[in-house]
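Hi support team,

I've been running sequence recovery on a batch of backbones for a student project. Most finish fine, but this one hangs at about 90% for roughly twenty minutes before it completes. I'm not sure whether the input is malformed or the queue is just slow. I've pasted the C-alpha cells below so you can try to reproduce it. Let me know if you need the job ID as well.

Thanks,
M.K.
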C-alpha cells in the first residue's frame, strides 16, 4: 500500500510527524481522551442524595421494552418458555408491581464514590525475622460471613515488617478464597490492552464494556474509574447517549458529565430531540451538584412539576393545555440557561428555536383538532 493511499484511508485516525526521513504514526484516539477519576471532593454524598437519585432515574428514561429485552448470556444458553395467564384486574396490578420492582433492580445504578486511598498500615516491626526468608508471607482470614472489605489480610515482608495488604493484594486473595462470578484474577485483555478497549468503543459496545468493568472492578478502584471515564467521554464525543438510555449506566453517565461541567452536549441532544422536560431536569441536576445556575431556583421548581408527569418515551401527537403551559415554561427556562450558563450557545440556541417552531405547529394542530371535535 502506498503512503498516499494509507493517509487517505486513515486521515481521522493518524497524525504524522515528519523529521527528515522519519515518519511517526500516532493514533489520535489515544490523544483525544484523557481519563479522570474522582480523587478530589467525594461525590458520594451528592450522588446518593434522594433528590439527585430521583433526577438520575428519571433522566434514564426507563423503557420496559428495552429493560426486559432478550440478551445473550453464556450462563443461560436456552431461553425460558413464556407463560400466559388469565388474570383479574387485581392480579394484573400485582404483576405490574412485580415488573416495576424487577425493572428497578435491573436499573440499579453502579455507585459513584471517591477513589480509595492506599493502605499504609504497619502493624509491627520484628528485626529478629530479617533474612528468615526471601519471600513474602500472606495471612488471610477465611472465615465465612465476613465482608471482603472487612476481612483481615496481612503480609510479612522479608525485612520483618508486618503490614496490612494493599487493595490489589486483598482483591486477588479474596477472589482466590471467595471467587466472584465473572471476575478474573488476572486483568481481562479488554482492559489491559488499550487498543482492544478502543476497538470495542469504536464499535459502540458501551454497555458491554461498562457491565464488564462492574464485574471486574470495585467502584472505588482507579482502574474502574478510568475505564468508565474513557467510555463516558467516548459516548459524549460521539453523542451516542441513546445507547445507554434505559440501562443502569445512564445515571452515572449523566452525573459524570454534570460533575465535570461537560453536560452541554447532552443538553443539546435533549433539545434537538424535543425532550425539553428532561433538559430542565438536567438543569436541576446541574444546580443540585454545583449550585451555579443563575435561574437555579426556577429550574428546581419547574423540575418538580416535570417529575409529576409521565415519562415521555416518544413525541406526543396530542397536547393538552396543561402540557402547553408546562412546555412553554420549560422553553423559557432553557432559554435563560443558554444565555447565562451554556458553553454551546449557538448550537443550543438554534436547536431551541427549531423546537419552538415545531412546537407552535403542534399547538395549532392540537387546538384545531379540538375545535373540529367541538371540545375547544
Amino acid at each position: 500500500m502506498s503512503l498516499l493511499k494509507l493517509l487517505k484511508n486513515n486521515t481521522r485516525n493518524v497524525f504524522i510527524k515528519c523529521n527528515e526521513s522519519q515518519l511517526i504514526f500516532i493514533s489520535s484516539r489515544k490523544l483525544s481522551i484523557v481519563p479522570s477519576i474522582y480523587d478530589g471532593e467525594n461525590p458520594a454524598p451528592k450522588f446518593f442524595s434522594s433528590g439527585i437519585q430521583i433526577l438520575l432515574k428519571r433522566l434514564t428514561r426507563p423503557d420496559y421494552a428495552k429493560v426486559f429485552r432478550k440478551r445473550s448470556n453464556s450462563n443461560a444458553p436456552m431461553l425460558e418458555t413464556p407463560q400466559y395467564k388469565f388474570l383479574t384486574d387485581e392480579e394484573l396490578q400485582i404483576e405490574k408491581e412485580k415488573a416495576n420492582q424487577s425493572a428497578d433492580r435491573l436499573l440499579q445504578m453502579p455507585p459513584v464514590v471517591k477513589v480509595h486511598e492506599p493502605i499504609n498500615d504497619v502493624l509491627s516491626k520484628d528485626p529478629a525475622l530479617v533474612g528468615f526468608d526471601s519471600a513474602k508471607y500472606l495471612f488471610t482470614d477465611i472465615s465465612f460471613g465476613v465482608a471482603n472489605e472487612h476481612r483481615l489480610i496481612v503480609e510479612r515482608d522479608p525485612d520483618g515488617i508486618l503490614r496490612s495488604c494493599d487493595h490489589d493484594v486483598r482483591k486477588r486473595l479474596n477472589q482466590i478464597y471467595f471467587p466472584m462470578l465473572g471476575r478474573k484474577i488476572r486483568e481481562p485483555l479488554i482492559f489491559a490492552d488499550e487498543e482492544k478497549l478502543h476497538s470495542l468503543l469504536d464499535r459502540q459496545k458501551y454497555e458491554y464494556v461498562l457491565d464488564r468493568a462492574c464485574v471486574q472492578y470495585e467502584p472505588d478502584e482507579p482502574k474502574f474509574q478510568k475505564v468508565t471515564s474513557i467510555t463516558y467521554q467516548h459516548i459524549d464525543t460521539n453523542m451516542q447517549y441513546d445507547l445507554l438510555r434505559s440501562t443502569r449506566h445512564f445515571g452515572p453517565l449523566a452525573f459524570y458529565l454534570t460533575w465535570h461541567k461537560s453536560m452541554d452536549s447532552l443538553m443539546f441532544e435533549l433539545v434537538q430531540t424535543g425532550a425539553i422536560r428532561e433538559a430542565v431536569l438536567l438543569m436541576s441536576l446541574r444546580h443540585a451538584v454545583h449550585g451555579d445556575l443563575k435561574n437555579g431556583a426556577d429550574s428546581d421548581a419547574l423540575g418538580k412539576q416535570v417529575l409529576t408527569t409521565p415519562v415521555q418515551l416518544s413525541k406526543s401527537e396530542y397536547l393538552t393545555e396543561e402540557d402547553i403551559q408546562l412546555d412553554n415554561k420549560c422553553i423559557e427556562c432553557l432559554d435563560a440557561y443558554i444565555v447565562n450558563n451554556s458553553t454551546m450557545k449557538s448550537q443550543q440556541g438554534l436547536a431551541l428555536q427549531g423546537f419552538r417552531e415545531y412546537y407552535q405547529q403542534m399547538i395549532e394542530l392540537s387546538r384545531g383538532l379540538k375545535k373540529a371535535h367541538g371540545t375547544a
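--
Follow-up from support: It reproduced on our side and the slowdown came from queue contention, not your input. DSSP finds 17 helices and six strands in the chain. No action needed from you.
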